[in-house]
Recover the amino acids of this structure.
């Protein structure tokens, strides 16, 4: 049954006009019993600001050899669960990474293996939160809110403190010896921070971090993409005053954050709009936002390398059906009210997605593109970190880390 639906939906998505026709017809029988996957939310699709797919692909370089799939290595299989962000400490130890079971773990070498470094809440227990391989499945969803879901990680290079953006517990910090992290920011303007996602540290100690949406939390993140809603923010936490401030508002799924080498600007991704943006921090353009690059798919984190270039992790590619849906909010509101299971819709929408990682300069010029077209070593990529001749690649949804000798 499910298989047949899937095939049916696939046909629709490959033929946008058939899709439209079917959707118009199904309007008549639309969700009469509130069975649709989104009926529990106030689903309000809006048109969003996304560059035409064909135009983006025309100038986007391809990696026809699929070099990431060919030369990439799958490591730590079934030892780490949804390692989104990867970080190394001041002594070069690591990687450290945040897991779907709420822990921050670190790799201590072959002999000692992975050790638990920190948790984000005193409510974390092994009994409630440790679900092994199942941590990255829906079995964890109802526990995430209690166990935490650390996403963005950054070490303060001065004192070795680790800053954490947790999807449920906001911004936190833990000392170089780990343990229970200290909460820094959970609220802003009197309301909870619903979906902290990534962060970077300014030289003056202020932390810039993203809050992906005011309406949906991490488990419901698919709705943010479907709606095209833009209630995300870039926030700033100032340690001397222990206060949190809104830097930018009205963003469409703000996700990764990265300062430039000289900290004159900061790059961030807007996942829904498939683009890389720049906020000027210093100089004559201070405070203004620029569009740096349109991307072929949905970006997650951005990380700088030693040369000051930026690696962007991208789930590729957008399809022409997605294009039709994103330009026509009314189509989305019908399609996603059909009484089909959400997981199936997500699967259909994400069908044929593969990993693209790309290195760009500060102007948005594409310097390198590496693809894994068959999903051989990487699916649902979340971060690329270049450290001493090696790329470390994280994923929010699978139980491994991929690496690639680079260059
Ligand atoms: C990759 O393949 C596409 C079409 O299959 C072609 O247009 C493009 O020039 C190729 N790129 C390279 C770098 O060979
Ligand atoms: C732990 O859980 C209790 C009960 O659900 C809740 O009241 C409390 O705020 C939680 N503590 C933290 C640190 O989140
Ligand atoms: C995860 O699954 C693999 C097989 O797919 C199994 O070998 C391994 O023991 C599992 N690990 C955990 C922690 O459940
Ligand atoms: C650090 O610099 C940023 C960018 O100029 C500024 O917004 C922030 O207020 C500064 N923080 C402190 C603690 O001075």
């Amino acid at each position: 049954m499910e298989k047949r639906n899937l095939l049916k939906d696939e046909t629709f998505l490959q033929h946008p006009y058939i899709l439209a026709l079917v959707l118009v017809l199904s309007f008549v029988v639309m969700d009469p019993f509130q069975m649709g996957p989104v009926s529990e939310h106030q689903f309000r699709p809006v048109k969003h600001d996304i560059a035409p797919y064909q135009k983006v692909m025309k100038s986007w370089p391809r990696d026809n050899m699929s070099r990431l799939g060919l030369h990439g290595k799958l490591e730590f299989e079934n030892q780490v669960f949804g390692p989104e962000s990867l970080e190394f400490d001041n002594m070069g130890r690591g990687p450290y990474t945040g897991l779907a079971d709420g822990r921050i773990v670190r790799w201590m070498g072959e002999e000692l293996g992975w050790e638990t470094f920190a948790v984000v809440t005193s409510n974390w227990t092994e009994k409630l939160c440790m679900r092994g391989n199942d941590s990255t499945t829906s079995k964890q969803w109802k526990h995430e809110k209690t166990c935490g879901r650390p996403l963005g990680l950054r070490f303060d290079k001065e004192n070795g403190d680790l800053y954490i953006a947790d999807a449920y517990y906001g911004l936190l910090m833990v000392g170089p010896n780990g343990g229970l992290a200290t909460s820094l920011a959970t609220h802003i303007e009197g309301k909870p921070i619903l979906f902290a996602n990534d962060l970077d540290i300014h030289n003056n100690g202020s932390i810039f971090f993203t809050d992906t949406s005011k309406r949906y939390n991490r488990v419901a993140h698919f709705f943010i993409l479907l709606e095209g809603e833009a209630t995300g923010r870039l926030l700033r936490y100032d340690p001397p005053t222990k206060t949190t401030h809104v830097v930018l508002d009205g963003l469409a799924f703000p996700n990764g954050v990265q300062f430039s080498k000289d900290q004159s600007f900061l790059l961030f991704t807007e996942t829904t709009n498939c683009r890389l943006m720049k906020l000027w921090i210093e100089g004559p353009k201070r405070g203004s936002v620029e569009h740096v690059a349109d991307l072929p798919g949905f970006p997650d984190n951005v990380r700088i390398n030693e040369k000051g270039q930026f690696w962007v992790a991208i789930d590729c590619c957008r399809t022409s059906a997605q294009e039709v849906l994103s330009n026509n909010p009314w189509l989305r509101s019908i399609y996603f009210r059909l009484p089909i299971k959400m997981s199936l819709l997500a699967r259909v929408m994400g069908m044929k997605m593969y990993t693209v990682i790309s290195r760009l300069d500060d102007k948005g010029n594409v310097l390198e593109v590496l693809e894994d077209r068959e999903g051989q070593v990487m699916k649902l990529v979340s971060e690329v970190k270049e450290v001493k001749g090696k790329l470390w690649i994280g994923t929010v949804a699978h139980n491994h880390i991929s690496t690639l000798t680079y260059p």
Notes: Residues 2-14 form the longest helix (13 residues). The radius of gyration is 21 Å.
